[in-house]
Design a protein that fits this description.
Distance between the termini: 38 Å
Oligomer: single chain
Shape: globular
Number of strands: 11
Order of helices and strands: HHEHEHEEHEEHEEEEE
Low-confidence stretches: 1-7, 16-20
Helix content: 10-25%
Number of domains: 1
CATH architecture: 3-Layer(aba) Sandwich
Number of helices: 6
Strand content: 25-35%
Mean pLDDT: 90
Length: 246
């Protein structure tokens, strides 16, 4: 694949999915796990958290319910989802932006930066990770949650819905390897500590009408392995990145 083909494809599912979800009322298990990682760090009670690709803001709303004094900020590429977020969580600060561009927060830095389910959209993870790191305060925390490959194999995925006439090729299911991500981060000018957390769904998720909404099935000894309609077995992980002062 040459550079001209990078990031070809469209991303069309997000608005229809996230504008209707209400995870603040019944938070995702992943939300709970992310909160447990945040709790494992020494942060001020009024710490600031920036959620990149925040959709309609439900993770930030849940975070605020656990840490009432925290300051919540979010961006998303979808103006529709940001409008939802502003209505649902008026105590937060939200704006339409893309992580592909630098300095969208006017040089503001945060105690915690969260990048959940976003990296998989991009063919080249390095500029995205570098932009994320630029928003983290010294001694702060970057959380990157994604489907990663524990083996040193990177996969770029394009899919289309063959049962729909003139369906475009879509993106959003790239699987970058842990090896690639670690190599990128270790070659930066930042002093970083990395820690991987596996996430296994604790209960069954049934298949839905949309085959690209993930569900669980038994694979080997795991009763709740996550898969999708593109024949992908998905390994969800949280990468905890500490940005050290020196």
């Amino acid at each position: 694949m040459n550079d001209g083909e990078y990031n070809s494809g469209v991303r069309i599912a997000d608005e229809s999915i996230y504008s209707e979800e209400r995870h603040n009322e019944k938070p995702k298990e992943l939300f709970k796990r992310l909160i447990s990682v945040i709790k494992g760090n020494s942060l001020p009670s009024d710490f600031s958290i920036y959620d990149i690709g925040c959709a309609s803001g439900d993770f930030l709303g849940y975070t605020k319910s656990i840490f009432p004094q925290c300051q919540i900020f979010g961006t998303d590429i979808s103006e529709k989802l940001i409008t939802h977020a502003k209505k649902k969580y008026p105590e937060g600060k939200f704006q339409t932006a893309t992580i592909e561009k630098e300095n969208v927060t006017n040089d503001k830095k945060f105690d915690v930066v969260n990048l959940k389910g976003v990296l998989t959209i991009f063919d080249k993870p390095e500029p995205i990770l570098m932009n994320c790191l630029s928003y983290v305060k010294k001694n702060g925390l970057l959380l990157v949650t994604n489907f990663f490959n524990p083996d040193p194999i990177d996969t770029l995925t394009r899919y289309r819905r063959a049962d729909k006439e003139n369906s475009p090729w879509e993106t959003g299911w790239n699987i970058h390897s842990c090896h690639t991500i670690e190599t990128i981060l270790k070659n930066t000018d930042y002093n970083l500590d990395l820690k991987w957390h596996d996430f296994v769904m604790p209960f069954e998720i049934k298949r839905q009408n949309d085959p690209m909404r993930t569900w669980t099935t038994q694979v080997g000894d795991n009763d709740n392995t996550t898969i999708n309609g593109a024949c992908q077995i998905l390994h969800l992980m949280i990468l905890e990145i500490h940005v050290n002062d020196t």
